[in-house]
Amino acid sequence: MSCEDGDRDDIPPEAYSLLHKIANQWTGIVNAEELVLKILQGSMTNRVYECHWSWEDGHCPKKVLVRIYGNGANLLFERENEVATFERMSQLGHGPRLLGRFPNGRLEEFLDARTLSARDLRDQDISQKIAIKLYEFHHLDIPGSSHPRLWERLRDWLEKSNKLCKPEIIQEFQLERLQEEISNLSNAISYPKERVGFCHNDLQYGNIMINEKDGDITLIDYEYASYNPVAFDIANHFCEMMADYHTETPHLLDQKKYPDFAERQRFVECYLKVSGKGDDCEVENLMKDIDHYVLASHIHWGLWGILSANVAEINFDYLGYARERFKLYYQHDF
C-alpha cells in the first residue's frame, strides 16, 4: 500500500478490510492489498482520499473514495442524519453510491466526473446547469420533518460557541449580541408561505461535480443538508462565488466576485423555469428573498468557522474565515 500526500495512519484497519473486500470482488486487479491512496484537497470537514489499484491491463478503471469523518463534526451536524440522507440520495439516483461504512468514515463510489473550480461557477452554461439541478434537489422526497432548520441551527451553534470560546473570542465576534441579531433577522426575512425545500446548504464549488462527457451536474456532500428556505440555499451559493479555497489564502473572500444583478437574475430565471412558471413577479420576489438570506448565510458560516476552530484538525484558518463572514454581515445594508 502507498499513500500520496497523506499519512496512511489516518486510514483505520476497518477501512482497509472493506477496501480489500471490494477489490477482491472485481476481476483484473493485480493485488487487492496493493492499493494507492491519494488525499483530495478542498474538504474542510472531512479527510477524503482517492483509492485505486494496479490492474492487469495497466489501467485503473475503478476507484473508491474514502471519507474519514472530521473530529468534532457532531458539534455541527448529526452524522447519522447525514448518512441517512446520503443513502436516500443513492436510492434516488443522486450522488455516489454507498459502498461500505466503518466506525469513523465510509467508502463511496468514485464518480466519473470532475469537481468544479471557483472559475467554473462563473461559466454561464455551467451556472444554468447548477440552477436546474438545484431546483431538482429542492424537490426531492426526503423523509423527515419539512420544517426549516436554519434558525434552530444558528441558535444551537451560537450556544455552543459561547460555551467553547474564550472570552476574547466572544468579545471579538460580539457573540453576546448575536442572539438578538438572529431573532431580529428571522422575524424580518422569514414568512409563512416562503418557498421551502430540501436544501444542500453548502453549495460551494467543491461540492459540485460535472461529467465532462454529458455535462451532467451532481451535488455531493450532504453534511449540512436539511429542509430550509430555498432562498437561503441560493444565497449561500452566490456567497460561495466570492471564495477560492485553492489559493495561498483560502479563508479570504473577494467581495468583487459576488455575482452582479444580471448574473443573479439569470440564475433565478433558470431555476424557476424548471417549474414551468418563473414570471417576472416570481423572479423579482425570489431575488429579494435571496438578497435577505445572504445575511443568514454570513451568520451561518461565521459561526461554523468559530466552532470549527475549536475542534477541526484540517489546515485552514477557520477564525480568519469567520472574521470575513461577520465583516460582511455587519456591513450589509438591510
Task: Summarize this structure briefly.
By secondary structure, the protein is of the alpha+beta class. The protein is built from ten helices and eleven strands.
| Strand segment count | 11
- Enumerate how many helices there are, as a single number: 10
Terminus-to-terminus distance: 55 Å
Radius of gyration, rounded?
A: 21 Å
By secondary-structure content and strand pairing, the structural class works out as alpha+beta
Write the H/E string, N to C: EHEEEHEEEHHHHEEEEHHHH
Uncertain regions spanning at least 5 consecutive residues:
none
User: Which descriptor suits the 3D outline?
Assistant: globular
**Overall CATH class of the largest domain:** Alpha Beta
Beta-strand residue percentage: 5-15%
Helix content: 40-55%
Question: What integer is the average pLDDT?
Answer: 90
The largest pleated sheet is described as:
6 strands, mixed
* Number of spatially distinct domains: 2
Could you say what the CATH topology of the largest domain is called?
Aminoglycoside 3'-phosphotransferase, Chain: A, domain 2
Order of strands side by side in the largest beta sheet?
A: 1-2-3-4-6-5
Describe this structure in words.
This protein is of the alpha+beta class and about 325 residues long. It has two domains: about 110 residues, Phosphorylase Kinase, domain 1 (2-Layer Sandwich); about 220 residues, Aminoglycoside phosphotransferase (APH), C-terminal lobe (Aminoglycoside 3'-phosphotransferase, Chain: A, domain 2, Alpha-Beta Complex), CATH 3.90.1200.10. Helices cover about 45% and strands about 15% of the residues. The strands form three sheets. The protein has a six-stranded mixed β-sheet, sandwiched between helices. Strands 7-9-10 form a three-stranded antiparallel β-sheet, with helices on one face. α1 links the parallel β1 and β2. α4 packs parallel to α9. The radius of gyration is 21 Å and the shape is globular. The N and C termini lie far apart (about 55 Å).
